[in-house]
């Protein structure tokens, strides 16, 4: 178990803390009953060349850390606008070099942090937040490029790639949502919510939750001017990448790994 | 909802009152150009004043006419000296929320920067002020009414009649050209179900559908991806190839390659921004060069996933442009669906905006 850091001068602390936080995903805040921690995200190292990636963004909510006995411990999101509120965080792994990236979710774990054996997280936006007016929504749910409309809600994962100078997009979100029009929210959850509930083995505070680009690139290579934004299960351009999401019953996800 | 723009420290200046739908974020206003009623009043007068062009023949309002949502009924603009512009005059709507100006420029981020282009640009000449600065300022100084307006708009600042102040006043007026009272707005942001007909709702659903993909680029409350406001986290920027022209392997002299001219990146060839669709039925003709005459033409263009150009220096198949946005993949519409879509686009017309006396020519009212 990680205990409080030894007494050191404030100057040393300022120098050590960022490297310490970066190296382990931990920031101790002793005495408050909760320990600051970070869940880091990235692209799988085998796919580190993200030159053709124009957009790679996704929303994450409901994170649990699994202890050595497999017991879940909630990870509480801290409010860090514009990237996260207490419920939902936006990650931005690659894209326009002029734009800022976001590679971690910040929050706290009750008590002190220990060694964990796994992590559960959901890539998506909770239904009750997913279909509201984005202009009145708290960041990060105010991003126009991550929103379809009231009826369909937010794009949970948005990947825009150019492979061999061909552009291809995979935008994953809820489908089969019923309401009076595109600008009215559904009263009932959508037929295909398409939230990715992921469980990964390993210590999430020492590793990095990584997205594999390979399934996306493979799909982009086999497609020609195709966008994959709704009928994920049947559209030939979507089928392969959809099966990687783990949303098909009986097919485990192969998009995410803890490295 | 009435929201107040930033109040100046001295308390003498009356801040401008935005009229925004409930819950709407306020626009960003540059720190060095607080929005005041007096600047807006001065800017409005300047916007309609032909003396601002070197030869006294053109005002901003010559190409940006209120009845056309501050655009004009011409494929491309003509400057004060008669020189032809390559591009269509853009409508001036909700620019207070716009993050990038002109049809294709990644570096012009405030209205204050933008107004200098038509004033001083010489490729082509628009207002033609370059080289005639003192002459134009002398004309304005010679008008006693302006003296008072500049004094009130820029109190205690030495020489009042400068191009810096002209640009700030013009930008202040243009910033107030806000349109949020269309039937679409009543339906979307005021929750008034009766604001749209059934046919218009069907058209709205088509517009938002994955089948047509219109809303991917014409996104958000301005129907454009270039939106910023007081609480916006990130300024979005996205320029697109639509398939209006074929890819040019060699550089065609005089052709308009859009963002490429600014960045020099070949990947930016033929990239333009998706303009707002607000008041779109009033700002014909369409596209950056005004080459599509009607909204019906635009729908057919996107239904075909681009077009084949058979005349002029850039002939060929725009549909197979390698940089073309993947969402422009074509679609088929029944005659009823096409009419529904046109009916929806007409709901973006804000009659109050087009006739609002606060935006009209102040001289015409005298």
What are the key terms here?
heterodimer; A: 259 residues; mainly beta; 13-stranded mixed sheet; two-stranded antiparallel ribbon; 4 helices; 33% strand; globular; B: 366 residues; mainly alpha; Cytochrome Bc1 Complex, Chain D, domain 2; 2 domains; two-stranded antiparallel sheet; 14 helices
Task: Itemize the secondary structure elements and their pairings.
The complex is a heterodimer of chains A (259) and B (366).
Chain A: H1 10-24, E1 26-27, E2 34-43, E3 53-66, E4 72-77, E5 88-95, E6 104-110, E7 118-123, H2 127-130, E8 147-149, E9 153-154, E10 157-163, E11 166-172, E12 196-201, E13 209-211, H3 214-222, E14 227-228, H4 239-244, E15 256-258
Chain B: E1 2-4, E2 17-19, H1 37-47, H2 60-63, H3 111-120, H4 133-141, H5 144-153, H6 163-175, H7 183-188, H8 198-208, H9 214-217, E3 239-240, H10 260-263, E4 272-273, H11 295-303, E5 308-309, E6 316-317, H12 335-346, H13 351-355, H14 362-365
Antiparallel strand pairs in B: 1-2, 3-4, 5-6
Helix pairs in contact in B: 1-5, 1-6, 3-6, 8-12
Supply the helix-strand structural class of chain A: mainly beta
* CATH level 1 class label of the largest domain in chain B: Mainly Alpha
Mean pLDDT of chain A: 84
Count of all domains of chain B: 2
User: How many domains, in number, for the residues of chain A?
Assistant: 1
CATH topology-level fold name of the largest domain in chain B = Cytochrome Bc1 Complex, Chain D, domain 2
Distance between the termini of chain B: 31 Å
Largest interface: A-B, 36 and 36 residues
Helical proportion of chain A? 10-25%
* Beta strand count of chain B: 6
User: Strand order within the widest sheet of chain B?
Assistant: 1-2
- Report the order of strands and helices of chain B: EEHHHHHHHHHEHEHEEHHH
Mean pLDDT of chain B: 91
**Would you identify the regions of chain A where 5 or more consecutive residues have pLDDT less than 50?**
1-25, 27-31
Indicate the overall shape of chain A.
globular
Helical residue percent band of chain B: 25-40%
CATH 2nd-level architecture of the largest domain in chain B: Orthogonal Bundle
The total of helices of chain A stands at 4
Q: Write the element-wise H/E pattern of chain A from the N-terminal end onward.
A: HEEEEEEEHEEEEEEHEHE
* Alpha-carbon Rg of chain A, integer: 19 Å
Largest β-sheet summary of chain B: 2 strands, antiparallel
């Amino acid at each position: 178990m990680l205990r409080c850091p030894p007494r050191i001068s404030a100057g040393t602390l300022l120098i050590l803390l960022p490297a310490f936080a970066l190296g382990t995903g931990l920031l101790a805040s002793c005495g408050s009953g909760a320990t600051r921690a970070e869940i880091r995200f990235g692209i799988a190292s085998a796919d580190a060349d993200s030159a053709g990636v124009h957009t790679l963004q996704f929303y994450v909510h409901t994170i649990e850390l699994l202890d050595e006995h497999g017991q879940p411990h909630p990870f509480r999101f801290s409010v860090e606008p514009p990237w996260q509120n207490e419920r939902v965080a936006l990650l931005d792994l690659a894209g326009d070099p002029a734009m800022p990236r976001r590679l971690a979710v910040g929050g706290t774990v009750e008590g002190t942090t220990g060694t964990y054996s796994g992590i559960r997280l959901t890539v998506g936006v909770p239904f009750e937040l997913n279909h509201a007016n984005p202009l009145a929504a708290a960041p990060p749910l105010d991003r126009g490029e991550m929103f379809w409309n009231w009826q369909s809600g937010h794009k949970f994962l948005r990947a825009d790639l150019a492979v061999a100078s061909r552009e291809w997009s995979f935008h994953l979100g809820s489908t089969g949502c019923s309401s009076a029009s595109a600008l009215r929210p559904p009263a009932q959850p959508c037929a295909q919510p398409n939230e990715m509930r992921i469980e990964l083995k390993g210590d999430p505070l020492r590793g990095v939750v990584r997205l594999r680009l390979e399934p996306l690139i493979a799909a982009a290579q086999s497609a020609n001017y195709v966008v994959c934004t709704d009928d994920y299960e049947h559209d030939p351009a979507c089928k392969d990448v959809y099966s990687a999401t783990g949303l098909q019953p009986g097919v485990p996800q192969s998009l995410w790994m803890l490295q | 909802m009435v929201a107040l723009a930033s109040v100046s420290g001295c308390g003498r200046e009356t801040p401008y009152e935005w009229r925004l739908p409930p819950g709407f974020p306020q626009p960003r206003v540059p720190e060095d150009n607080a929005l005041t009623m007096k600047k807006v009043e001065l800017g409005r007068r300047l916007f309609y004043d032909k003396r601002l062009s070197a030869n006294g023949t053109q005002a901003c309002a010559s190409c940006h006419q209120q009845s056309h949502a501050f655009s004009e009924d011409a494929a491309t603009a003509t400057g004060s000296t008669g020189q032809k512009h390559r591009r269509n005059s853009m409508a001036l709507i909700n620019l207070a929320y716009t993050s990038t100006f002109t049809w294709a420029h990644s570096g012009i981020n405030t209205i204050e920067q933008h107004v200098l282009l038509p004033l001083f640009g010489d490729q082509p000449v628009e207002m033609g002020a370059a080289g005639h600065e003192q002459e134009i300022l002398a004309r304005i100084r010679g008008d006693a009414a302006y003296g008072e307006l500049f004094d009130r708009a820029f109190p205690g600042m030495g020489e009042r009649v400068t191009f810096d102040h002209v640009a700030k006043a013009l930008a202040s007026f243009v910033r107030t050209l806000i349109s949020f009272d269309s039937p679409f707005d009543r339906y979307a942001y005021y929750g008034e179900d009766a604001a749209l007909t059934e046919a218009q709702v069907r058209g709205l659903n088509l517009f938002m559908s994955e089948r047509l993909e219109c809303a991917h680029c014409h996104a958000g409350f301005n129907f454009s991806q270039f939106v910023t406001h007081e609480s916006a986290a990130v300024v979005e920027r996205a320029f697109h190839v639509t398939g209006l022209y074929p890819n040019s392997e060699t550089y065609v002299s005089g052709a308009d390659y859009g963002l490429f001219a600014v960045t020099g990146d070949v990947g930016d060839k033929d990239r333009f921004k998706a303009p707002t669709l607000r008041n779109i039925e009033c700002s014909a003709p369409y596209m950056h060069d005004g080459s599509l005459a009607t909204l019906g033409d635009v729908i057919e263009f996107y239904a075909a996933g681009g077009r084949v150009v058979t005349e002029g220096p850039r002939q060929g198949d725009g549909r197979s442009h390698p940089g073309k946005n993947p969402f422009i993949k074509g679609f088929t519409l029944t005659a009823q669906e096409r009419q529904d879509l046109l009916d929806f686009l007409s709901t973006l017309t804000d009659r109050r905006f087009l006739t609002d006396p606060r935006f009209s020519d102040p001289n015409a009212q005298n």
